[in-house]
TrEMBL record:
Lineage: Eukaryota, Metazoa, Chordata, Craniata, Vertebrata
UniProt-listed GO biological process terms: immune response
Name of the protein in its database record: Ig-like domain-containing protein
Family annotation (PANTHER family): MHC CLASS I ANTIGEN (PTHR16675:SF286), MHC CLASS I-RELATED (PTHR16675)
Pfam families for this protein: C1-set (PF07654), MHC_I (PF00129)
GO CC annotation: external side of plasma membrane; extracellular space
Keywords: Glycoprotein
Boundaries of every Ig-like domain copy: 192-258
Amino acid sequence: VDHTLQYYHTAVSSPDHEMPQYTSVGYVDRIQITRYSSDTGRSVPVAHWMERLEPEYWEEETRNNKQAQEASRRNVKIAMSRYNHTGFHSFQLMYGCELMDDGSTRGYWQYGYDGKDFLALDTERRVYYPITDQAQLSAQKWNSPEQRAGKRAKDYLEKNCIEWLKTYMEYSKKELDRKVRLNPRFTLIVVTMKLHCQVYRFYPRDVDVIWKKNGIDILPEDNRHVLPNSDGTYQLRATAEVTPGDGASYSCHVDHSSLDEPLIIMLGNTFYSHLMLCMAK
């Protein structure tokens, strides 16, 4: 059986939208093990078996996250300046390692801006490559002989990450297969012919969110990333381009294991500048 250790860091330009300015969460095999928030300024265990680690471990994790918080704060400002953006925006760091059943390993390290790919690590060449034009300056700086950030990231993925994964596996026990009923808030927004369907606070991670036009699937506008919340649940936004006034009927379809049947939100053929639907248990 393959095992994974993954971390997700999210920084926002301002503490808004019910989100702290910075959060970091860690997972082993999709089970949340740690949480850090700029609201508390402390790294804390989430999985019960992580409580067995020494206090020194949590002090070190807190120091590391405070440094990452400062770096993420700078990164979101840099990205906004590159895009000439103002307002609310987010910057994500996702990295992790995988230990295969045959003993082989692999890892990844990538950055995102507003949920879209921004910069990623070429683990073979140990250098970062830009995914957008706005990321080129960052890649050049991080790949410079003075920084060699790609080499440091690769070394971490091959050594420290795998070592900690093995340690956590020793501490862990078999977790119950739990489900948290989907408790989403949908935000349906038409801005320059775009619809956004946002689903918040669901667990487990796997979910299908699809826009349909007159009952026919609409291809998503861009890559969709399921992002973690600090409480162990997840969120996702699906975006589709539409043509206002075309007389078509649009609907957002959500399928999740916590639902007895797929949830369908009909928008109809009348468009609203802002339509919000809050769902409760």
